[in-house]
Amino acid sequence: MKKSFVVLFALLMVVCGCSSNKVEIRGKFDRGTSEKVIYLSTNDINRYILTDSAKIRNSAFTFRTSVEEPTFYHIGFSNNEFVTILASPGEKISLSFHSKTPGNNYSVEGSKGSADVRLLDIKLYSTKRKLDSLMLLYSETLTNESHPDHIKEIERTYEQLVKDQRKNNIEYIISNPSSFASIFALYQQYDDQSYVLYDKRDLQYIKIVSDSLSKYYPKSKIVMSIVSDLSRGKMQLLSEQLGNLVSSAQETTLDPNLLDINGNRVALSSLRGKYVLLSFYSYASQDCINENLQLKELYKTYKTKGLEIYQINLDADEATWKNYVNYEELPWISVREDDPTHLTNARLFNVQTLPSNYLFDRDGKIIASNLHGRNLGIKFNQIFK
0.90 cut: is pTM over it? Predict the structure, then answer.
């Protein structure tokens, strides 16, 4: 009897395990479609392999598969008519196409990863359309021999669009380093030759994602591929410039470890177990000074409930910084960059304006960014209610 129970228990565990890996993908064309079959392709590192097909009946289709880890799929009719989804074990994904072919005009439910991939894709699609329009305008302007100032304005607008797109991807990666969707954000391209993350400094974000995902998915083929590329110095995915930097790149983590006003080094990770507001500021900014007044009140209210503030100063003069902290009686952890001429942490966290902040939960995961004024107060009230 006991032996039978053990066998039955083992079978149940196997069945439950298989069930938890199953993925169901249902799709619907709201406007109908003339196509009879739709295809499912699975990501295999740098390519997609045709995996399955489904008949379209009454403008709807269903795929069923199993995955051991989050997996990228293409669903569509051809190499140019598809959407990308990121399916995780156990998900039941619902797709609604608002046109007669797969494209950017669709919605997705039941999959956080797929929803994030959709937003990344839509943002890039919008940027590409604007860039294409600017290129057309640029060509017309050159042909018409327009004023040089007009040409320069077009060039500035083009450059700003590229920078904004890069900033969007970096912000997503910083907030979601353990998500497979960050891999998608790393490798997005405008075309076969141009990547969204084009700057040589972007190597640090590749390392952040590979280091983070390696902890959770050490045997994943796509994660091992990223790690392998980094170690061999063959990162051609972003730009040719990156190849020369890989061998000398230092370990990069989202964990500032800086000196406070007493000369003690304090790591952000040492505050795990608390909600931590990572704040970047300058005492030369009136906006920063005003925000610190609000932070004092919030800190007084929520410190005993588990809030800590880790504030990084970006000013060059150490003595003035110390005087400011002491004079204002800032009660939280006040630190500054080790080398004010190279704002390593500010660059790593993609700080564009001051004040800037990131909110970490008790496990050290980023749950919000750049909340100020009333919005910050509302967020704290939601957390500590």
Answer: no
Strand order through the sheet with 71-76: 47-55, 37-44, 71-76, 82-87
Q: Are strands 275-281 and 307-313 parallel, antiparallel or unpaired?
A: parallel
Q: Which of 84, 110, 136 is the last residue of a domain?
A: 110
Residues 158 and 190 in one domain: yes
Mean pLDDT across 181-198: 90
CATH classification of the domain holding 35: 2.60.40
Provide the token pair at 76: 């569509």
Q: What's the rounded Cα separation, in Å, for the pair 285 and 314?
A: 11
d(CA 313, CA 346): 10
Look at residue 61 in the predicted model and tell me its pLDDT: 97
Spatial contact of 23 and 86, defined as CB atoms under 8 Å apart: no
* Final residue of a structural domain among 58, 83, 110: 110
Beta bridge partners of 335: 260, 312
The answer to whether residues 80 and 154 belong to one domain is no
Q: Is residue 10 part of a domain?
A: no
| Mean per-residue pLDDT of the chain | 86
Q: Can you say whether the dihedral through the CA atoms of 371, 373, 374, 379 is positive or negative?
A: positive
DSSP symbols for 231-287: HHT--TTT-GGGGGTGGGPPP--S--EEEBTTS-EEEGGGGTTSEEEEEEE-TT-HH
